[in-house]
Specification:
alpha/beta, UDP-galactose 4-epimerase, domain 1, two-stranded parallel sheet, 13 strands, binds nicotinamide-adenine-dinucleotide
């Protein structure tokens, strides 16, 4: 017998597919909804024949009908890498606005709990470091990242409005950079870029002088955090989820080059507009309220990630 019925929007994407794996392992019944705009059926291929798993290829911005009760909704659908959302700015704004509205309506109708995948990008190029949940952010509303940043900020505001007006049990996860198997090799994010370049012996391209920082959380830690947040008590909770282990981008490039035994040269290129200079979550709230903190070291997570990318070549 399945425990709960859980919808995962964006369930064929990187983070969503790992959530689906986790929930199926827990014995839940999972409905994965994805229009495959940036996700892949390959990510869920092992689940497709599982009796508790259903895949619906659908755009959640256009609405979604599910018969029967629903207990929880992980609303993960949105292009997430800068390359994807800059190619799909209107679709990104639609899924984070209309798509989020549709899923909040469903949560209200079914009295289901909903977790919104928000992002550290709501902090923009932060003037406060590390970022705590009460920081309001420093975002350019018409910059190249605004379709993502601003629509996620709207999604958060909408979720809180449903919480206030309809008592929908909402959780908001502000996800910081996450990495691991099933990232797309060409999605333009730092880790896949560097790993693929190093494995192929191409130049490792750094944008800027590499002194900008990022904090990377391994995927299993992230899924652990997200599921804890979903199952935690307080409605309307907003929590940073990420690994506070802050690294300079140039150090990440060197580490990946060493771990892959690559002869790649490291080259430096102009920094894109509005690229955040520092990124590090303050996860005190997640520790206090969820008893969660990442346990996979960057070295251990990178080893698994490099191994996985090697098998994809
Ligand atoms: N990966 C990260 O480091 C990171 C950081 C911050 C926030 N997030 C958030 O986490 C979520 C998942 O990110 P990801 O890295 O797995 O990205 P991803 O691109 O791998 O997954 C997103 C999934 O959503 C699907 N999707 C997009 N628009 C849709 C629509 N209209 N209808 C149905 N499905 C749609 C895509 O096809 C894809 O499978 C996103 O909401 C993203 O904003 C991710």
């Amino acid at each position: 017998m399945a425990n709960k019925t859980i919808i995962v929007t964006g369930g064929a994407g990187f983070i969503g597919s790992h959530i689906c794996d986790w929930l199926i392992d827990e014995g839940d019944k999972v409905v994965c909804v994805d229009n495959l705009v940036t996700g892949k059926k390959d990510n869920i291929k092992l689940l497709l024949r599982h009796p508790n798993f259903t895949f619906m290829e659908q755009d959640v911005s256009r609405g979604l009908k599910i018969a029967g009760p629903v207990d929880q909704i992980y609303h993960m659908s949105s292009p997430a890498s800068p390359i994807d959302y800059q190619k799909l700015p209107i679709e990104t704004m639609m899924v984070n606005s209309l798509g989020t509205k549709n899923m909040l309506d469903m949560a209200n109708e079914k009295r289901a709990r909903i977790l919104l995948a928000s992002t550290s990008e709501v902090y923009g190029d932060p003037e406060k470091h590390p970022q705590t949940e009460d920081y309001w952010g420093h975002v350019n509303p018409i910059g190249p990242r605004s379709c993502y940043d601003e629509s996620k900020r709207f999604a958060e505001a909408l979720a809180m409005a449903f919480n206030k007006m309809h008592y929908v049990d909402v959780k908001i996860a502000r996800i910081f950079n996450t990495y691991g198997p099933r990232m797309r090799a060409n999605d333009g994010r730092v880790i896949p870029n560097f790993v693929m370049q190093a494995l192929k012996g191409y130049d490792i391209t750094i944008y800027g002088d590499g002194s900008q920082t990022r904090s990377f959380c391994y995927i299993t830690d992230m899924v652990d955090g997200l599921t804890r947040l979903m199952n935690s008590g307080k409605s309307g909770e907003i929590v940073n989820m990420g690994n506070p282990d802050e690294r300079k981008v140039v150090d990440v490039a060197k580490m990946i080059r060493d771990m892959t035994n690559s002869n790649s040269k490291i080259t430096f290129h102009p920094l894109p507009k509005d690229d955040p200079t520092r990124r590090k979550p303050d996860i005190t709230r997640a520790k206090d309220k969820l008893g969660w903190e990442p346990i996979i070291s960057f070295e251990a997570g990178m080893k698994k990630t490099i191994d996985w990318f090697s098998t994809q070549m």
